[in-house]
Amino acid sequence: MHRLISLARLKRAGITAILLALVVSPAWTQGRAQVSSPAPQGPWMNKNLPPDQRADMVVEQMTLDEKIQLVHGGPGGFGAPGAPAQPTRSNGGAGWIPGIPRLGIPDINMADSAVGVTRGAAMSRYSTLLPSTLGAAASWDLKAAYLYGTVIGRELRDQGYNMSIGGGVDITREPRNGRNFEYDGEDPILAGTMVGQIEKAIQDQHIMGDIKHYALNDQETGRNIGNAILDKRSMRESDLLAFEIGLRDSQAAGFMCSYNKINGDWACENDYTLNQVLKKAFGFKGWVMSDWGGTHSTVKAALAGLDQEMPGSGFFGDALKKAIESGEVPVARLNDMVHRILRSMFAVGVIDDPPVRQVVDVFKGLEDAQSIAAETLVLLKNANNQLPLSGAGVKSIAVIGSHADVGTLSGGGSAQVNAPGGNAVKPAPGAAAGQGMGMGREAVYFPDSPLKAIRAKAPKAKVEYNAGTDPAAAAALAKSSEIAIVFVNQPTSEGRDVATLALPDNQDALVSAVAGANPRTIVVLETGGPVTMPWSANVNGILAAWYPGIRGAEAIADVLFGDVNPSAKLPVTFAKGDQDLPHPEIPGIKLVPPPPPPGAGRGGAGRGMMPPFDVPYTEGLKVGYKWYDAEKKEPLFPFGFGLSYTTYSYSGLKATAAGRNLTVSFTVKNTGKRAGAEVAQVYAALPAGAGEPPKRLIGWERVQLGPGESKTVNLTIDPLYLSIFNVDRDAWELMPGDYTVMVGASSRSLPLNQAVKIAGT
Ligand code: BGC
Q1: In this predicted structure, what is the pLDDT of residue 26?
Q2: What is the pLDDT of residue 15?
Q3: What does the pLDDT read at residue 39?
Q4: What is the CA(359)–ligand 1 centre distance, in A?
């Protein structure tokens, strides 16, 4: 109507000729696609109506076939040899759900985007590789996490996607899990808060977010067949709490159920975790999609709460249609699935503000990646204050190992971002080529050279590189140099775990040889998660860089030379050895067959090749530092630990309880000569009868302080963070009794403590 009026007016104005020229011009048809195919103007397009109402209006218009079409993905296309060709309307990401054009419902195009947007190579698209998500968690900085999500959301928009699949938040029960780099560490409150910020930021870009892998997909070994066993209380207070907080803080559109079983039922057909906990207790309004190939049934899955089968249609295509027609699955349930998808599209704004393709802002991405990386690097050791190095003062530096001449390592699997120009380290002849899924393939290095970044900081010094493959040769170079910086790596990937926390490829021997030759040795770790360091007493410096992202080399050099004062703290405990872990051996690891040949597809370790087995999480509530506290074990580096180039003091703790509310205030002072940021942490010991591990994290604040400056931190503690889960009542409970509040710089350095009585519920 609107258009007709304006056409008539234009005609009246006597510019018919110009108008005709515009109509036939390709620029016109391209720029105003809606002129030739008008967007439907059903009442659900009214932006002022609530998303649920809009969704209901659409559901009313839909045929049964259209509803079925929305609850499963179109053909996949994983970019692997022999994979099905991409459907033309797919944007080339991991998931594609055809929309309903006649109703104005766009396709859903999903891209894996845990650490940056993936699968660019096939389409010649560039995306920013961010530091590991675990690194983002190490920042303990909500703003850094928000920026992390902003970069991902922005680049998804620019590439024409409207949904992110990332948001991994399985807590670190298994520190050798191949996907820990995609997750947020061992504490549910820290992990949930960080993923909540990441997903919130993505959705603020009008891209639907998703949180995964729900739940207890804590190891890759036999992920398709393993049965995770855990009691309900531990689940709610640990693993599921991380998901609960992430959802609460982001209202993420999607939840991806995981491959494994949970207490006997597949995670994608688990009534307890999906219906009872996620939808009822957490109040989740979005939709549950299966991990790729993680659907196992039609009726059971539909009734247990699965809303979308990804990516195929084996269970939620014709089979679901039949189940609806026969009444085995009520139509109301199908309508609920569809409603959840549509209401999320309206709520996040992908219909009102669809993505518009443009070239990714590479420069902004690099800048953001570097500023995030600067907050992710954890300084674990700095004997004799050897760091920071003086760029002007140092005469010679030996840079050794881990391909530091050409690049930095990234994480493998579906989160693998494509390296610009391809892998900076060309695979050995005969090794599987390409950067596809990365699963079981070569480790991918990004072309960002630490050697160059170090040279730039010390332009007058002699900076030489040794590959580190021959420890004796590396030691010889270290001996003739003033400083030795050894880069070590632990490649990890989806689809497989590392069998041990020990560094692979003889790198411990390399570090020992170098440290033996030069006492001024600094080690930079590029790892998926915690590793052991039998040489830690013999080196002066240790910097945990995780996988540091496309600007990692610059960020590492900034910390080594003091342009950035490190502030990150460990989001995971570093154990002294595998024997100290709750499971010295990964359940099922001995059953893993040799790696599949390149191109064998996904499913990772296990599918169809291993007998089913249990993963009994007998440690229950004692995850991460809670295990070390309860078992009185000394870690190598504790949760929450990280050094700075300045020092801080803590004083004046005041914990006050009023009803259910606890407020905590204390003062942090920068007692050194450099500006810095301290992540001040608050822990609580629950009343004696609570049956809890000795303490849990209940809050923190990252405090920016100039030299000599003090600040008072005031925190209001969420009662949930002090509560326990009462399984009999199926409810959270704030126990009345005596709590101890502890404050300090790490889980093992808590100089302030105060007892406080809480009245409870
Ligand atoms: C992974 C998911 C991923 C999906 C799509 C699965 O193998 O477990 O994390 O989102 O593939 O690529």
Answers
A1: 30
A2: 31
A3: 65
A4: 26
Q: What is the pTM of this model?
A: 0.93
Catalytic residue among 158, 184, 218, 291: 291
Q: Is 414 in the pocket of ligand 1 (CB under 6 A)?
A: yes
Q: Residue 619 has which token pair?
A: 């440690």
The verdict on the CB of residue 78 being under 6 Å from ligand 1 is no
pLDDT band for position 597 (cuts 50, 70, 90): low
Q: How far does residue 104's CA lie from ligand 1's centre (Å)?
A: 28
Write down the pLDDT at residue 426: 87
Cβ neighbors of 81 (< 8 A, separation 6 or more) are 599
Helix (H) or strand (E) holding 372: helix 362-374
Residue 616: its H or E element: strand 614-616
Q: Bridge-partner residues for 465, per DSSP?
A: 399
Among protein residues, the one with the nearest Cα to ligand 1's atom 4 is 292
From the list 218, 212, 138, the residue with the least C-alpha distance to 177 is 218
Q: CB of 112 closer than 6 A to ligand 1?
A: yes
Q: Are 118 and 166 in contact (CB under 8 A)?
A: no
Lowest average pLDDT, out of 67-71, 590-594, 688-692, goes to: 590-594
Which residue's CA is the nearest one to ligand 1's atom 3?
414
Q: What is the pLDDT of residues 662-671, one digit of tens each?
A: 999 999 999 9
pLDDT exceeds 80 at position 78: no
CA distance 15 to 7: 10
pLDDT for position 599: 52
Is 184 considered catalytic here?
A: no
3-state secondary structure 212-228: EEECCCCCCCCCCCCEE
Q: Is the CB of 239 under 6 A from ligand 1?
A: no
Of residues 550, 578, 580, 556, the one with CA closest to residue 568: 556
Q: Are strands 541-544 and 95-97 parallel, antiparallel or unpaired?
A: unpaired
